[in-house]
Design goal:
The structure is a single chain. The protein is built from 32 helices and 13 strands. A hairpin with a 2-residue loop joins strand 5 and strand 6. The chain starts with a helix and ends in a 9-residue tail after the last strand. A 6-stranded antiparallel β-sheet has the order 3-2-1-6-5-4, with helices on both faces. The chain has a 5-stranded mixed β-sheet with strand order 8-10-11-13-12, covered by helices on one side. By secondary structure, the protein is α+β, with helices and mostly antiparallel strands. This is histidine kinase. InterPro entries: GAF, GAF-like_dom_sf, HATPase_C_sf, HATPase_dom, His_kinase_dom, HisK_dim/P_dom, HisK_dim/P_sf, Sig_transdc_His_kin-like_C. Its EC number is 2.7.13.3. It catalyses: ATP + protein L-histidine = ADP + protein N-phospho-L-histidine.
Length: 921
């Protein structure tokens, strides 16, 4: 878990080589994560960038990626960025689990326990370590197993010292001999802490000094900082303030160099306590407040609770008893929530002292007795001295007799004398002497007074020698504080820069994915929907407006989100030079207005197709990051919208081609049919003419025979002729037969005209541009549709003479047919269709007006859209007017519509007489 310095130096030399493989660099990054966390993080980023491009096996690649996420997680953890660390650990867990990498999972859960520790989550801490221990046992890694067991045992000491000693004391090594540097540091750290919590301060200091040496050797800088702070606390408890300040200063300097909030906060807390004990209350309070500020987001962190404890004791020293009581009560709540017994003892003792000074004696006694019970369970013998002494003071304040008070003082003295390296406070000796004197035992009182004087003289002598060192250290502390402030500001600036780069990296990744999704859409509606979603994700608290430039370049048509005060209508005139969207369009530059509005043109190569705008919900919503995002979204939107429009036009052209091919096929069929029936019609027509002539002649002959034979015929012949004439009804035949033949000839003439109109309409033989008579086209189209219109409306024509128009006659006939069919559909019965034609300069004009149902304004806006129809499903395709519009555009003409509900509709066509090339753009 922590490579020794020798192997790490070798790996560094190999990693410096450009040809070093990724596995070597990954090992180096893992080994440097505490010794040089910035370098480790840089290496991790490089490895993660190169691994996907390497030719390593998938299993090896995934393993390296997961290990580098552990490096990133530990660096984030050291910086107290706990949420970031948790997220990285979650990612790494997925990878390690997929690979079934038990060592990786073991290291991962070891880091999880640190996250829980910094958050004060005792149960999660224990679960993380127990899971890591189980994994180390499964993989058979003895060094990892020992290191994890020592870590769990150390944490259990703070939770319940007696249980921890019973569980771990015999199972763990009592010497560092033969152990790796990492395990040796952990063993010495555990044993030193065990002795310190049992008030065995001299052996505790020896163990901790060894732990510090091994921690530095193994690259465990976090442990080294913790050990230095605990050494300071140990020497403070032994009243050796010079040594205490020396170690605290060493730890504080290391912590400031590292820039790690967790380690720095512990050093600040322990140094603050030492400063309090030498009477520098103001300086101590500043250090402790700085510690609390660093851990404001993590109040259950142990360093935060230490700072709260020491700050409460300063308030007792300053007679701020009410505030001290409140803080000790808060400390008790936090200690209870994380199940920290030693903190619970200190909180109870502090409450007893504060309550004593507030003269709330019954509550003070109850708190002190509770503190004694917990201290005895935890074997906190030095703390027990203070608790017993406090109980004696409470008894004196309650007015108890010397006989009742003295046992507490005697227990306190006995406890103090049993502590190796502990200097019995002279004030305690003097309190015991006063109690003996009060009960008349002057001999014992004298002896205790003498001891108090000797101890005070000894302390004075030692303190005199140490005072100069203490003053020097104090000066160094002040100097270090100034340096620390400078370093802290630098660290903050670097942290802000790192966070900004990380944020920018995340945004760029998101932008890349957004660009892929936006530009993949080939439908205008989908482009707008996807764009709006990404604007909401990347530019929170903003409203999007999207405008497209119309084909003539006269209007910005609103396509999305225009319901705001700055855009009164659904479109903006390009001539409105004051409008922010028009200014962006004309200048082709991005505009930032009051930090709240961003407007930019949508450009594709040299073309501008529209404008995009976002509006923040409050002032100064947007900065450089938002401008970068907006600029890229505009580029993606422009490309996507241009593609969607092109795809839409392609689809429309395909539909038009299909419709035209269909019409051509119908025309070819009609022409074929007309050709096939034209000859039989000619034959029938010729035969009917001959028949009419011959029938007339035959009837004339019959009449002549009647007249010639009338006188000379016999009676019998006349009778037979008369009978036959009556049977044939010769008079009727003579009158009706010529009429029938005449009607048949008329019918054939009409069929002939229809065939001629059908051929004229289809124009199979006229697919090229030619000069055509529009009036003739109107007539032929009417002949084709008369059977459909005659039962609904009367058709009135007001056709003026027109010059021949250069056009595609078949397509113009198709337009006329669509307009007449729509006019017929708009009329239920007894209607009127008026068809007019006239000349307007170089334009030939045709209008088709009906008095049918009419259209609303919103319908008129969409009638030329492909597939838009107001007819029931199955009764219309929605392509007729769209195709008509395209045909007129092809001729560079115009088609206008005027309509209102209940007032009928009028379509007006304007075609250039000399064809589209004569129209000036």
């Amino acid at each position: 878990m922590f490579p020794c310095r020798g192997s790490l130096a070798f790996t560094q030399e190999a990693g410096a080589n450009e040809a070093a493989d990724l596995e070597q660099v990954a090992v180096l990054a893992w080994g440097l994560r505490q010794q040089d966390s910035e370098r480790a993080l840089q290496l991790a980023h490089e490895v993660l960038a190169q691994v996907p491009l390497s030719d390593l096996a998938d299993e090896v690649r995934n393993g390296i990626q997961a290990r580098m996420r552990l490096v990133q997680a530990e660096v984030a953890l050291l910086g107290m960025r706990l949420d970031e660390a948790q997220g990285l650990l979650d990612q790494a867990e997925l990878d390690f689990s997929a690979l079934q990498d038990l060592r990786g999972l073991c290291d991962l859960h070891w880091l999880r326990h640190y996250v829980a520790a910094d958050r004060g989550q005792a149960e999660c801490l224990r679960q993380g370590l127990e899971t890591a221990i189980e994994l180390a046992e499964r993989v058979g890694d003895g060094e990892r197993l020992l290191l994890l067991q020592l870590t769990l045992a150390r944490s259990e000491l703070f939770r319940d010292q007696m249980v921890a000693n019973h569980t771990w004391d015999a199972r763990l090594p009592r010497s560092t001999e033969g152990l790796s540097p990492a395990c040796a540091a952990a063993v010495a750290d555990y044993r030193g802490l065990q002795c310190g919590l049992s008030s065995e301060f001299a052996p505790a200091a020896q163990w901790l000094i060894e732990a510090y040496r091994w921690s530095v050797a193994s690259g465990q800088l976090r442990r080294a900082l913790s050990v230095a702070s605990n050494l300071g606390y140990t020497y403070t408890s032994m009243s050796d303030y010079a040594q205490a300040v020396e170690w605290l200063q060493r730890g504080l300097s290391l912590a400031r160099e590292s820039g790690w909030p967790g380690s720095l906060s512990l050093a600040l807390a322990q140094t603050g306590d030492a400063m309090r004990r030498i009477g520098q209350l103001s300086a101590a309070r500043e250090l402790l407040l700085e510690c609390q500020a660093l851990l404001a987001a993590h109040p259950h962190n142990r360093s935060a609770m230490l700072a709260l404890k020491y700050l409460s004791e300063i308030e007792l020293d300053l007679q701020e008893n009410e505030s001290a009581l409140q803080h000790f009560q808060l400390l008790a709540e936090r200690a209870q929530s994380v199940d920290s017994k030693d903190m619970h003892t200190d909180a109870a003792l502090g409450q007893a002292r504060a309550l004593l000074r507030l003269r709330r004696l019954a509550e003070a006694r109850e708190a002190a007795l509770h503190a004694r019970e917990v201290a005895q369970q935890q074997r906190e013998r030095s703390t027990l001295v203070d608790i017993l002494w406090t109980l004696a003071e409470i008894g004196q304040a309650e007015g108890q007799s010397p006989e009742a008070v003295l046992p507490w003082l005697q227990q306190a003295l006995a406890q103090a004398e049993r502590l190796p390296g502990y200097c019995t406070p002279p004030a305690l000796l003097e309190s015991a002497a006063a109690a003996h004197a009060a009960r008349g035992d002057f001999s014992a009182a004298y002896q205790l007074s003498q001891r108090a004087s000797e101890v005070r003289q000894q302390v004075f002598t030692e303190e005199s020698g140490k005072q100069a060192a203490v003053l020097h250290v104090q000066h160094q502390v002040e100097r270090a504080r100034a340096e620390q402030e400078h370093l802290r500001q630098l660290a903050q600036a670097e942290s802000a820069r790192s966070q900004a780069l990380q944020s920018l990296h995340t945004v760029l990744l998101h932008l890349g994915e957004s660009g892929k999704e936006i530009t993949a859409q080939l439908n205008v509606g989908r482009v707008l929907a996807v764009l709006q979603r990404h604007v909401e994700e990347l530019l929170q608290s903003s409203r999007l407006s999207f405008f497209l430039l119309d084909e003539r370049g006269e209007w910005l048509e609103c396509a999305l989100g225009c319901l705001d005060a700055a855009t009164a209508g659904a479109r903006i005139a390009v001539s409105d030079a004051q409008h922010e969207c028009v200014r962006a369009l004309r200048s082709r530059t991005e505009l930032m207005i009051e930090g709240q509005r961003m407007v930019a043109p949508l450009q594709v190569a040299d073309r501008v197709i529209g404008v995009m705008r976002v509006i923040g919900l409050q002032a100064q919503s947007f900065g450089e990051r938002e401008q970068l995002v907006f600029r890229n979204l505009c580029a993606y939107a422009a490309v996507a919208m241009d593609n969607a429009k092109a795809y839409e036009k392609l689809g429309e052209l395909q539909r038009q081609v299909a419709a035209q091919e269909k019409m051509a096929s119908i025309g070819q069929l009609a022409a074929g049919v007309a050709h096939e029936i034209n000859n039989p019609i000619g034959f029938v027509n010729s035969n009917l003419g001959t028949l009419a002539r011959d029938v007339g002649s035959l009837l004339a002959l019959v009449q002549a025979y009647r007249e010639a034979c009338g006188e000379s015929a016999s009676a019998e012949q006349r009778q037979r002729a008369q009978t036959l004439e009556q049977a044939l009804d010769l008079a009727f035949l003579a009158e009706d037969l010529p009429q029938m033949i005449h009607e048949s000839i008329d019918g054939l003439q009409r069929v002939k005209r229809i065939v001629q109109d059908l051929r004229s309409f289809s124009r199979v033989d006229a697919s090229d541009w030619l000069y055509a008579d529009l009036n003739e086209g109107i007539e032929s189209t009417l002949n084709m549709l008369m059977h459909e219109i005659r039962y609904k409306a009367q058709v009135r024509k007001e056709l003026s003479p027109l010059p021949a128009v250069y056009c595609l006659a078949a397509q113009i006939n198709q337009v006329l047919m669509n307009l007449l069919v729509n006019a017929g559909h708009a009329i239920e019965r007894d209607g009127l269709i008026l068809i007019r034609s006239w000349v307007d300069g170089a334009w030939a004009c045709v209008s088709v007006r009906d008095n049918g149902c009419g259209m609303a304004a919103e319908v008129m806006k969409r009638i030329f859209e492909p597939f838009f129809t107001t007819k029931p499903v199955g009764q219309g395709t929605g392509l007729g007017l769209s195709l008509s519009f395209s045909i007129i555009q092809k001729h560079k003409g115009r088609i206008d519509v005027d309509s209102a509900p209940g007032q009928g509709t009028c379509f007006t066509l304007r075609l250039p007489v000399q064809g589209p090339d004569s129209v000036v753009a």
